[in-house]
Structure formats: C-alpha cells, structure tokens
Amino acid sequence: MTADRPASGTEASVDADAFKGFEMEGWENQAPTYDSFIGRLTSQLVDPLLDAASVGPEMRVLDLATGPGYAAARAAERGATVVGVDIAPSMVRLARQLHPTLEFREADAEALPFEDSSFDAAVSNFLIPHLGRHARVVSELVRVLRNDSRLSLTTWDFPERMRLLGVFLDACAEAGAAAPDDIPVGPPFFRFADDEQFIALLSDNGLSDVDVRTVSFSYHTDSADQLWEGMLTGTVRTSAFFLGQPEETRRRVRSTFDRLVLDYGRGGNFEWPVSVKLARGRKAS
C-alpha cells in the first residue's frame, strides 16, 4: 500500500462490478454509524456544493449518493423539489427516517431511473471516490439534466493536504500494511484530487464551463480516538483495508497513528486540516 491509495489499481486492473458490490455492501454496514463522525464532516460541504450548482427555489434537484440526505434536506430548505438517490438500501431508509417529507429512492448511479432532461440541477457529495466507472456516472448525470443546468461534485484532496484522512493512511503505510486479497481493487482513491483530471472528467462527458476549486478548513475533535473510530465506522475502503490486516499489523498501525497525531494536538483537542475539491460544470444547450 502507498499512503494515498488503499486497494487501488490501474484502470485495466479494476473489476468495476466487483468494486461496486463491495462499496454497496460497505455502505449498507456503515449507514448506522456514518453520521457520528464522517457525516458531520461531509455535511460541511453541502452549502458550497449547492451554491456551485446554483440550487434555489422552484428547481427540481437530484442529490446522487444522498446518504443520510444532508444535501437533499438543505436543497429543500432552499425551496427546491429534490429527489435523493442512493445505491445502499440502508442509507435510503435512514434518509427517509430523518427527512420523511422528502423523496428518496434506491438506484444505481450508472443507470439512473429518470427520463432525459428531468432536473434543473444535480449534485453529489463525495460519490467520486467510490465509483468504478466515473465517466458512465457523469454521463448519466448529464443525461438527466436540462440544458443550461449545472452539476456539482466533491471529492477529497490529496492526503498531504487532507490530513484528517492522510494521517490514518500514513500510519498504515509506515506500519507496512498491505492490501488484503479479499478487497476488490478500485480506481485510485485520490485520482480526481488532480484538478486537470477532474476537469477532464466533466468536460469529456458533456459539460462546459467546467472549473474546480479547493475548499479548505479545519475540523476539530476532542480526542484522537474520535478520528480513529470515525475512520472505522464511517468509511468503506479505508476501514476494510485496516480491518483486513493481521492483528500484529493492526497494533503497529495504531501505535504509529498515536504517534503521528501528536502533531495535530492543540491544547487537549485536535485540529485536522481538511481539503476538498469542488467541481462544477454546465450542460450546454
């Protein structure tokens, strides 16, 4: 394993169907605990994501990979009519429980169950790292957008800047952890942290006026244990990578993690640098 790509491979080596099944099963298991840490982090990108897609009143909006429905709920508060979609049934059930007045559906991002030109805007918060076929999904999103409508997407920045993830991955790398054989190889996790790659993904699949910006902030925790537990209960690839290690390797990872996090201690609390890439584009007339 390298510090930035757990269970990642070249495009040719990825079994996209196996990877999609792995991700769906993982999110089924993580739904009950996602909000306790990672969800509170990802929800901080909801307003910038909606702003990038110009979401406002009387618009019909698609929230793809809705999870617990954070972006869908915020879009509704802005006066939009929103449909939240997720591949994991447990996430859809959770979103319906949390937001009973909104519409949520189970669906595959590679084959959306909507007619062409159905939405005035589409957003997806951190779906990108969990896809095996990025171009197909972006093409589907473009298909269901009306002309002159906007799409916005987020993904994590490289781990040297996104230290909340990077410190955990660095601990795994320094401890000598290797990718478990039973995890399907996925695309490079941080591929679209590269602005040019992210721009090309949108531009090559039907969008114009594409741009990418970096959103940076600090995320505070009361302890290092909060981050540790958050990684294990709110991620799929990263947690499976760690949990698939031999017990001795897991001990080395935790010991290394405990040492590395000292750099982020601030008077008894911890301050983690967060960096996110936010891309947007417009479907041309």
Please outline the helices and strands:
Layout: H1 16-34, H2 38-42, H3 46-52, E1 60-64, H4 70-77, E2 81-86, H5 89-98, E3 103-106, E4 119-125, H6 134-144, E5 145-156, H7 163-174, H8 195-203, E6 207-221, H9 224-234, H10 237-243, H11 247-260, E7 265-266, E8 269-283
Parallel strand pairs: 1-2, 1-4, 2-3, 4-5
Antiparallel strand pairs: 5-8, 6-8, 7-8
Helix pairs in contact: 1-5, 3-4, 7-11, 9-10
Total count of strands: 8
Strand content: 15-25%
Number of helices: 11
Please tell me the CATH architecture by its name.
3-Layer(aba) Sandwich
| Shape descriptor | globular
**SS-based structural class?**
alpha/beta
> Mean of the pLDDT scores?
94
Characterise this structure.
The structure is a single chain. This protein has 285 residues and is of the alpha/beta class. It has a single domain (11-283), classed as 3-Layer(aba) Sandwich (Rossmann fold), CATH 3.40.50. It is 40% helix and 23% strand. The chain has eleven helices and eight strands. It has helices at 16-34, 38-42, 46-52, 70-77, 89-98, 134-144, 163-174, 195-203, 224-234, 237-243, 247-260, and strands at residues 60-64, 81-86, 103-106, 119-125, 145-156, 207-221, 265-266, 269-283. Strands 1, 2, 3, 4, 5, 6, 7 and 8 form an eight-stranded mixed sheet that branches. Helix 3 (46-52) packs across helix 4, helix 7 (163-174) crosses helix 11 and helix 9 (224-234) crosses helix 10. The radius of gyration is 18 Å and the shape is globular.
